[in-house]
Design goal:
95 residues, 0% helix
Length: 95
């Protein structure tokens, strides 16, 4: 295992579910939020997909619930890093 560079975190913090971890050191998480529609006075669900840095020390897999924090841009699309794993996913596991 290689040492990860010390990347300072700042800004926003989210808890999201990992939906894909197929890229090397990168995962895709999905954040669900509610958006208010003024005309109908109701809410609708909206989803945002974030590419996040997945350090080898954490190694989050598909289905895991993780906490991500904003950091400096790591690449063109990655601006968040996984700081901790909250819950293990159940995908691929049998009871």
């Amino acid at each position: 295992m290689t040492d990860e560079p010390n990347i300072p975190v700042r800004g926003r913090t989210f808890t999201l579910r990992i939906i894909s971890a197929k890229m090397r050191k990168t995962a895709v998480g999905e954040l669900e939020r509610r958006h208010y529609i003024k005309k109908y006075e109701r809410y609708e669900k909206r989803r945002t997909r974030l590419k996040v840095h997945n350090p080898e020390s954490i190694n989050a897999q598909e289905g895991d619930l993780v906490v991500v924090r904003e950091c400096r841009p790591i690449s063109k699309t990655k601006k968040f890093i996984i700081v901790e794993k909250v819950d293990e996913g159940t995908k691929g596991k049998s009871n």
